């Protein structure tokens, strides 16, 4: 994937694409931002563009170098990950040996370091010496959740590239390209923070089933109280879904929020998009304040569960409050 094809992070894209187009590529970059903001994907896309022979300012995807990269056959790309909880000095020394091996100074080499803030002091000092004497053919990309946690002397020798939390629409675009079903993706990006958490959620056993149960509960909780109670008892608390009552409540909040989106004409923001016809028919059954109260009751049920109230009891009390309005 090229830099341009990645979702979001327009500032990071501008910095990297300008460097590629102008030929003024720094010897070291620090990609800093929250988990799930796409730093590793951007680092790989940047590395691919650096190796690309097109000179277009991004990876062309068709040249020999791009094809080698896509097939995992690029020997001049090195990825460093923590050994346990930290990156150790021996790893830095091994990296330096790899980069120096058969380096004529002409062929470009790239290394990506995950969780660079986890370097031990000895490892950081060893890397610092390497950064102080940069080779024009070597480009470093350091990744960190918190760039301020990286040794200041290393920070001063890198170009800072900030990453922001991805917007739900950007995360949904990425998940869809990865083959995640849109209906699950739309729910996940409003429940989880960051792409990695979204991926873990949609891959979780029972997530699709829980979404379907929430749709049934959302409908029955408004007009069929007895049916809602039976659904909760049989399909939630007598199944594995009952092990994650907080997730179920979070999905239910999204259901009631969709009612407000419909009332406000924001149909593009609806999460349960496959239920749009039903939502349109029932969204105006209560004023917006009524749906807000439903959301508040649902959040209160979550608090009661965290305070060790029986999840089933808390949920049944929630259904009573929702029907009462």
From TrEMBL:
Write down the EC number: 2.7.7.7
- Listed SUPFAM superfamilies: P-loop containing nucleoside triphosphate hydrolases (SSF52540)
InterPro entries found in the cross-reference section = DNA_pol_HolB (IPR004622), DNA_Rep/Repair_Clamp_Loader (IPR050238), P-loop_NTPase (IPR027417)
What keywords are annotated for this sequence in UniProt?
Nucleotidyltransferase, Transferase
Whether Acyltransferase counts among this entry's keywords is: no
Any one Pfam family here would be DNA_pol3_delta2
Q: Which Gene3D superfamilies is this protein grouped with?
A: P-loop containing nucleotide triphosphate hydrolases
Q: Into which EC class is this enzyme placed?
A: transferase
Asked if the record carries the keyword Heme, the reply is no
Provide the GO MF annotations for this entry: DNA-directed DNA polymerase activity
Q: Which PANTHER family does this one have?
A: DNA POLYMERASE III SUBUNIT DELTA, REPLICATION FACTOR C / DNA POLYMERASE III GAMMA-TAU SUBUNIT
Protein name, per record? DNA polymerase III subunit delta
Q: Which organism is it from?
A: Paenibacillus spongiae
Native organism taxonomy:
Bacteria, Bacillati, Bacillota, Bacilli, Bacillales
């Amino acid at each position: 994937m090229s830099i341009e094809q990645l979702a979001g992070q327009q500032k990071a894209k501008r910095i990297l694409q300008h460097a590629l187009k102008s030929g003024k590529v720094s010897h070291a970059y620090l990609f800093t931002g929250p988990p799930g903001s796409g730093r590793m994907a951007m680092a790989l896309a940047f590395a691919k563009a650096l190796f690309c022979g097109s000179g277009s300012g991004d990876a062309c995807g068709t040249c020999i170098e791009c094809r080698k990269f896509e097939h995992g056959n690029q020997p001049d790309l090195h990825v460093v990950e923590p050994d346990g909880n930290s990156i150790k000095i021996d790893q830095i020394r091994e990296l330096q040996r790899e980069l120096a091996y058969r380096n004529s100074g002409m062929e470009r080499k790239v290394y990506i370091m995950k969780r660079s803030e986890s370097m031990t002091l000895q490892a950081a000092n060893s890397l610092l010496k390497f950064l102080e004497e940069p080779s024009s053919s070597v480009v470093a990309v350091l990744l960190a959740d918190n760039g301020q946690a990286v040794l200041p002397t290393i920070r001063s020798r890198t170009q800072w590239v900030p990453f922001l939390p991805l917007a739900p629409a950007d995360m949904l675009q990425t998940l869809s390209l990865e083959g995640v079903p849109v209906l699950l993706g739309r729910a996940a990006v409003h429940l989880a923070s960051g792409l990695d958490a979204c991926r873990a959620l949609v891959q979780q056993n029972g997530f699709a089933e829980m979404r379907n149960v929430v749709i049934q509960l959302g409908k029955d909780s408004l007009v069929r109280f007895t049916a809602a109670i039976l659904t909760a008892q049989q399909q939630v608390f007598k199944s594995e879904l009952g092990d994650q009552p907080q997730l179920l409540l979070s999905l239910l909040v999204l259901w009631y929020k969709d009612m407000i989106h419909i009332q406000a004409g924001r149909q593009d923001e609806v999460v349960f998009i496959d239920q749009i016809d039903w939502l349109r028919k029932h969204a105006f059954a209560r004023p917006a304040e009524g749906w807000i109260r439903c959301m508040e009751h649902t959040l209160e049920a979550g608090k009661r569960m965290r305070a060790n109230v029986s999840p089933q009891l808390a949920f049944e009390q929630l259904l009573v409050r929702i029907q009462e309005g």
